[in-house]
Amino acid sequence: MAAVKRQKRKRTARPLNAAGEFVRFTDPVTENVVVRLTRPTSQSLLPETENRFVSSREAFLIFSSDRSGVFAPFHANLKDGVITQVAEANTLHPRSLALDAKEHELYFLDGDLLRAVSLSRGQPKTIVDSVTDYHFGGRSNVLVIQQEEKLYRWASGERQHLADGASSRGVVSPLEDGCFFLRNSSGNEKEIWYASFRGTRPKLLAKGPISSPYWRPDGQTVLFLNHVNRKSYIASIVCEVALDGSPVHEVVETSQFACFAPNGNGSVFVGASQSKAQPDIVILLRSARREMVLCEHRATNPRAVCPAFSPNSQRVYFQSDHEGKSSLYSVNVERLVTETEDT
């Protein structure tokens, strides 16, 4: 496993200029510039990291906050730091926010209602009710809904049954030909299954103490973390499995990643370390198996840090409660990671 590169820790982070609500400071570990996007006086949460929530083209970010008294969806202008509320909700699921492929509409769960609202105008509209969770993906906005433990593809008011016994939503493949989902196994173990939109029976892909499943951006494999017991520690290994029934492949062991996400072409991973001595945001180059520390996260729960790349792979976003309530942060990685196509 590649060693994490670290610099001597400084006592305090140096504050820089502010813009709108944004506050820039230098990280005490690496001296990289980090931007705190939201004030720590209220809870601010990122959407599920598989969802599209950042627009690189229009430079804005979507998130949830209880700054108005209850959780609601908000829009942050990444140029001037101005934050505005997008819509109201009665019982918002804070991490359910997702932009459509054209970035014109915002989808979210309000209680058991899947709702959508235009970013430019108007009141939210209900798409479908009795929804436990959902995901849509691809350029065609293919929508899969979870209702209790059942998964359906939803199109023009019609449901296509995909699977039963789902303990998670179905995450749509970038190829738009199916979705993966989780089923609970024994103890803390889980199973990753694939459900095709062609009507075939779901297929078991992998099982064990796994977390953070993602499609590789080309849709050919599913990436995930496998937490394996070694003699003196628990290793967090990035693995991948193809849809053809071939064995699980170990990609690279990480420095105690609690959660992770790939960049726009799957060549770089970003993770949140669960090490108490080194609570950092780390990027890992897949081919070189080399890790580099971006900054500290110092969150009380590393699994809730939820690091993710922007669609063009030029920034990393994450959340942390180390300054009080959960706030959002970003750090520029354009000197470290090649820009990818923003699809």
Describe the overall structure.
The protein has 343 residues and is an all-beta fold. It has a domain at 1-36 and 256-343. It has no helices and 32 strands. The chain has strands at 4-5, 15-19, 22-26, 33-36, 44-45, 54-55, 60-65, 72-77, 83-85, 98-99, 105-110, 113-118, 125-128, 133-137, 142-147, 150-155, 158-163, 171-172, 178-184, 190-196, 203-208, 210-215, 221-229, 234-242, 249-254, 257-262, 268-273, 280-285, 290-296, 308-309, 315-320, 327-332. The strands form seven sheets. Strands 2-3-4-32-31-30 form a six-stranded antiparallel β-sheet, with no helix packed on it. A five-stranded mixed β-sheet has the order 1-29-28-27-26, with no helix packed on it. Strands 5, 6, 7, 8 and 9 form a five-stranded antiparallel β-sheet that branches. Strand 14 (133-137) and strand 15 form a beta hairpin. Residues 1-11 have low confidence and may be disordered.
